[in-house]
Amino acid sequence: MVSIIIPVYNAENTILHALNSIKAQTVGVHIFEVIIINDGSTDSSKEVVDVFIAENPEMEIYYLEQSNGGVSQARNAGLKIASGDYIALLDADDEWLPSKIEKQLEYFENKEFPIDFLATRRNNNKILWPYRVKNHLAEITFKKLLLRNEAQPSTVLFKRKILDNTGYFNHDQRYAEDLNYWMKISKNNKMYILDESLLIADGGKRTFGVSGLSANLHLMEKGFHRNTKEMYVLKHINRIQYLFLTLFYKAKYVLLLTRTWYFNLKNRPN
């Protein structure tokens, strides 16, 4: 079974697309348990989900509610009750392509590939340096994650053993929380990216500076610095690496601000 964790916050306009993309999976819905966590939504997300559940009795769907605590608390609430052999993450504003889970499971079930965690490309984006594709896969390592995160959460499928050897997301972290978790996972597990675009993320918009949590570049930068400091405290990086990464993320922040300004100016109506 695959447990699908979906945090929902004010997603009345997108959650149906996410749920219908699960329903459209080529493996069939019988292998899924869908765990939806309403993270204190103030819109009609609950009513939209209630209608979907009523109209799809063949799907195993669990619905939880909590006061707004952020995406990490919502995901953790779902992870703690998940019973599947595999865990999939899906954000409420993303959509899987129909063959996503089938193609990922083929790699997990192929004994030639010792894989614990498998992401995919999204929005037809390329896999960029420092990752390198070999045999249709790009390996994720701790050192590579320090420089770039190519594993968008909704692309990810991983084995249940990761919950045992890594634990959960930092419960109070709302920005760059996925990168933090991936770095911890990388210490004890084999991680890869499948070189195939199998997700439409946020309607196909660019990665940063448009909408969702990643639109707040300042808080994203703070999240990256929190991760760097935590890795230093845990002694996963040394002081020289810590100082280098601090400067690296500041430079990256300035670059993203500049790119966002340029794209916004370019797309502004005349």
In short:
The protein is an alpha/beta fold and 270 residues long. The chain has nine helices and eleven strands.
Order of helices and strands: EHEHEHEEHEEEHEHHEEHH
Q: Any idea what the shape is? A: globular
Total number of helical segments?
Answer: 9
Span between termini: 52 Å
Strand content: 15-25%
Q: Which spans of ≥5 residues are poorly predicted at pLDDT below 50?
A: 208-213
Largest sheet: 9 strands, mixed
Rounded to an integer in angstroms, the radius of gyration calculated over CA atoms is 18 Å
Estimate the helix proportion, in percent: 25-40%
Task: Tell me the number of strands.
Answer: 11
Major beta sheet, strand line-up: 3-2-1-4-9-6-10-8-7
- Which structural class is indicated by helix and strand composition? alpha/beta
Mean pLDDT: 92
Your description of this structure?
The protein is α/β, with parallel strands linked by helices. The chain contains nine helices and eleven strands. Strands 3-2-1-4-9-6-10-8-7 form a nine-stranded mixed sheet, sandwiched between helices. Strands 5-11 form a two-stranded antiparallel sheet. Helix 8 runs antiparallel to helix 9. The radius of gyration is 18 Å and the shape is globular.
